[in-house]
Specification:
transport; elongated; Ferritin-like; 155 residues; metal-binding; iron storage; mainly alpha; Ferritin
């Protein structure tokens, strides 16, 4: 099927964001593991897998629409130096993904590509209700119980 060139280009931009998220989660998860924060490692490693799944869906859709997935482009990574910075960096990344998904969904509406829009709605729901919500909770917990108590709870 030949899809809209605008939608394919926008999907490739989303793909760059998902691949960057994947890279950032991968690095952060290994940093948590190295520091002994097993719970954070497991959760962020799970997020890495989720981002890989999101990237796979976008790649499959680009191919279905007759495009070529851009596996080279990436958004800049923001690797934190400590746990609060890492969580905030990941949260900022997810908030940008939400904005980007909404913009591409609006483009899909304009281009009358409702199947792509519906696929992106699933990614948006996962990003808003799982990834972002959990990261907001963690940042809030640090504020409520203090960094040392939070870190102890993550071992």
């Amino acid at each position: 099927m030949k899809g809209s060139a605008k939608v394919i280009a926008a999907l490739n931009e989303l793909l760059a964001g998902e691949l960057s998220s994947m890279d950032q989660y991968f690095i952060h998860s290994r940093m948590y593991e190295d520091w002994g924060y097993q719970k954070l490692y497991e959760r962020i490693d799970h997020e890495f897998d989720d981002e890989k799944g999101h990237a796979a869906l976008i790649i499959e859709r680009i191919l279905f629409l007759g495009g070529t997935p851009d596996m080279v482009s990436r958004a800049p990574l923001n690797i934190g130096k400590d746990v609060p910075a890492m969580l905030q960096s990941d949260l900022n990344l997810e908030l940008k993904v939400i904005d980007d998904l909404r913009e591409v969904m609006a483009l899909c509406e304009q281009e009358r590509d409702y199947q792509t829009r519906d696929m992106l709605q699933v990614l948006l729901s996962d990003t808003e209700n799982d990834h972002t919500h959990w990261l907001e909770q963690q940042v809030g917990l640090i504020d409520k119980i203090g960094l040392q108590n939070y870190l102890q709870s993550q071992m």
